[in-house]
Amino acid sequence: MQQAGGYNLVVKFGWKVLLLPAIVIPFTACHSSMENKDAVQRGIMDRLSQAGLSTQNMDVDVSHVVFHGNQAEADVEVRPKGATHEQGMELHYGLENQKGKWVVVSHAGMAGHGGGVMPGSPNPHGDSVPAMPPDHGSKMPSPDDLPPAGKRQ
After folding, report:
1. What is the pLDDT of residues 82-96, one digit of tens each?
2. Pairwise CA distance, residues 2 & 46, whole Å
3. What is the model's pTM?
4. 62 and 122 Cβ atoms separated by less than 8 Å
5. What is the DSSP string of 68-118?
6. Residue 95 class from Cβ within 10 Å (0-12 exposed, 13-18 middle, 19+ buried)?
7. What is each CA distance from 128 to 119, 122, 125, in whole angstroms?
8. Considering just the CA atoms, what is the radius of gyration of the chain in Å?
9. Higher confidence at residue 15 or residue 151?
10. Which 3 state secondary structure label does DSSP give 151?
């Protein structure tokens, strides 16, 4: 009789033990499948296409992603296809998971590559372009150095 009781216990409670993983596994699989760079990159590419940009002609690299539940922050490098790293620009995107897709909700520029030179660093163009004097832009020109103003009509 104990075998029958043991069998009944397995039948009575065994299905509940199997039910728990059947419910939990799909939710964890959906959650983890959304927390990856590829899903975020698809959302960013959708946003660029909606903005009218030709995504076929550009390389978009997601360099860093941080997930916060149904929100994510991504640092992205965008450059013309085949261009060097220095010819691109970096952007920061805020995304939100909406109906199983990452959707861009905010963006900001970070730093353009090669757009400027730190003060005191050597001229990146070599000696072909003369360096600016140290006081360049620090004082107003003399009125005598300005061209004459035309008469206003």
Report:
1. 888 788 889 999 999
2. 63
3. 0.52
4. no
5. ETTEEEEEEEEEETT--GGGSEEEEEEEEEETTEEEEEEEEEEEETTS---
6. buried
7. 18, 12, 6
8. 30
9. 151
10. coil
- Torsions phi, psi for 146 (to 5 deg): -85, 150
Asked if residues 92 and 110 have their Cβ atoms less than 8 Å apart, the reply is: yes
User: Is 60 exceeded by the pLDDT of residue 2?
Assistant: no
Tokens representing residue 25 in the block: 């596994």
Is-contact 81 60, C-beta < 8 A? no
Distance CA 34, CA 40 (A): 8
Element (H, E) at 144: none
User: What pLDDT digit, counting tens, does each position of 100-134 carry?
Assistant: 999 999 988 765 444 444 444 555 555 555 556 66
Return d(Cα 71, Cα 103) in angstroms, integer: 9
Comparing CA positions, the residue from 46, 47, 40, 83 lying closest to residue 62 is 40
